[in-house]
Amino acid sequence: MIKSILASILLATSAVQASPAFTERTLETTTSSDAFTVPKNDRNPRARAAAIDVKRKGWLYSEYPMGVAYYPTGTLANKTIAKDQESWLPPIADLQSAISDETTIALDAINSKGGINKLEDYANLYNGQWTKAFPDGPFPGMLTNFTDDRLFSMMRLSASPYRLKRVQASDTLLFPVDAAASITGLSLKQLQAQGRLFIEDFTEMKELTPTDKFGAGCRGYFYIHPKSGDFLPLAIQPLVKGHEDSALIYTPKDSPTDWLLAKFIMNQNDGWHTTWAHITQSHSAAEAPYLAAIRTLSDDHPVMVIIKRVEKTPWNIRPLLEAGVEAGAAPTAGPQYYAWTSLSGRQWANQVYSSGETANFQSNYYRTLLQNNGLINSKFGPALKSFPFYEDAAVVTEAIRDFMTAFIDSYYPNDKAVAQDAELQAWRAETDVAKVYDFPKSITTKQTLVDVLTHQAYLGAVVHGVMSTNGAIGDTTSLPFAPAGFRQPIPTKKGVTDIMPFMPTAEGAVWQVATYAAANRAAWRDTNETISYMFADDAMLSRMNAQTRAAAATFKSNMDAFSKVVRARKFDANGLERGMPFLWNVLDPNWAPYWSVV
Q1: Does the CA dihedral 280-282-285-287 come out positive or negative?
Q2: Which contiguous run of DSSP H or E holds residue 165?
Q3: Contact yes or no for 552/535 (Cβ under 8 A)
Q4: How far is CA 306 from each of CA 376, 535, 536, rounded to the nearest angstrom?
Q5: Which of 30, 197, 348, 424 has its CA 20 to 30 A from that of 66?
Q6: CA-based torsion, 241, 244, 246, 250: positive or negative
């Protein structure tokens, strides 16, 4: 149906020229220096339609175990994936070789210093051993301030904001906190009534299949302090399957060891979320509309070109991750360090996608998501005094939006031109076939198209950058802050005096760094793989119009300027940066990759 509508409209376009039948081979070998163009301006609409038809036959949908979203198959798709692998795989292999060598170096260095006997010894894990894989180590402050409650709470406003929500006046409170008034000056219900109470809930993780390590599904309250306005932790309740009725509730009133252990247990949940949700929140969520675009938009369509640019080489990622899951589940996998099995990781990642949490397109627009969760523009309760994720993500995303606006304005004089673009309309219809969750029901305005393209780029540059690449290893999965799993069962009573029996051994700690170093791209700092270079492709821009080239230059200039701002950040006299006792620089545009690399 889509094909017939598309063909009929294109064939009605003026200046129709006769053209030979297209085949996969001619499509593969066709090169052009002609300007990219929307359908109505194409001088050879028959050839254009024929080329799209060839793509539709060569890019097909297939089910895939990791990530739910359809995975491409077909002759053209398979050739493209194999070709992409030629450029994508060698850097992966080189990095893995370095990680293998540096793992041995790191373990030997730790053991030469007597191993890991106290929390401070985890700093030795990062002391110059990972010269290629992770040369900078965790973000400044992570190794020295891990007991600070503000590091724990502000991590939710920087590296992991996705599960944090403001508790609304009508919400049912999930658990009591008897000590709330003595901690905050207000009771739990008063905090709720004033819009000062927040929740982060990972309860479902208690249902995951365990390894020989231990974890819990936590839920925790945070609050805006009525006097200082600081965002602080109030209480944590770790839930273990089968023991929910006797779950302990921890607060800052507990002993320092009990409270720190509770924070580490909840950090483990955030680390798990970062690890597995990123697969569907950045990869699957972007791949689904991209595959639909490949099947409906001409390779000469400027919108297709921009989508291809921001996606780059996405198709090798999920197979790599699936191979990791299978290897982790094999009898020969060796020691387990996660609290839950790799098969559980895949199941959970698929679950949060299928529920719409990570898959929904429009409701995950960054401002929409944060507003719906009560984190910005809330009419209930005070505003957050500092929100580093939003502050940095907004600079990057709005710069992307400015580029997309200029780009779309240059090709479409008005909304009518968007509505009459047959290929755009075919793409929108194809997103239903491709099962793109919550995609716009129509693309008939320039604003809608700008929003779609901005979000497509945001998924790779911001979401993936924060949850993977240079983000997770430096914050949400760093040690001792966030162990992947615990060596002792989650306590059933308070009074823990020594936290070390719960913590990873030297071998487990080295494994954790090596695992997340595989996503790190330290060598890409100040290269053309970074956000600043998102649109800086000379071959692409040479076939775009002058307005788009100017917009790309403006974007590059703005991102270079923001990079200088990020790199100039330092701790204030109180040892804080935007209220955080650590320096969070993940979205430095000259360091963060612009695409979902791994």
Answers
A1: negative
A2: strand 164-166
A3: yes
A4: 30, 8, 11
A5: 424
A6: positive
Q: What is the residue type of 360?
A: N
Q: What phi and psi values does residue 200 have, to the nearest 5 degrees?
A: -125, 125
Which DSSP helix (H) or strand (E) runs through 309? helix 302-311
> In this structure, are residues 198 and 164 in contact, taking their beta carbons and an 8 Å threshold?
yes
| Residue 230: both structure tokens together | 């600081």
pLDDT given for residue 19 in this prediction: 31
Rg (CA), the chain: 25
Question: In whole angstroms, what is the distance from residue 289 CA to residue 37 CA?
Answer: 21
The structure tokens listed for 523 are: 């060598």
The model's pTM: 0.94
- In whole angstroms, what is the distance from residue 423 CA to residue 446 CA? 15
Question: Is 115 in contact with 138 (CB distance < 8 Å)?
Answer: no
pLDDT in tens, 25-77: 444 444 567 999 999 999 999 999 999 999 999 999 999 999 999 999 999 99
Task: Identify the residue with better confidence: 13 or 297.
Answer: 297
Structure tokens at 288: 């689904």
- Phi and psi at 17, nearest 5°, equal -120, 145
Distance CA 73, CA 262 (A): 46
Tokens 């823990």 identify what position?
496
Q: Provide the H-helix boundaries in 68-138.
A: 75-112
- The residues, any chain, with a CB within 8 Å of residue 117's CB and separated by 6 or more, are 500
Q: How far apart are alpha carbons 438 and 451 in whole angstroms?
A: 13
Q: How far apart are CA 199 and CA 222, in angstroms?
A: 6
427: left (phi over 0), alpha (psi -120 to 50) or beta: alpha
Cβ-proximal residues to 78 (8 Å cutoff; 6+ apart), any chain: none
Give me 45's structure tokens: 């609409």
Distance CA(592)–CA(145), nearest Å, equals: 24
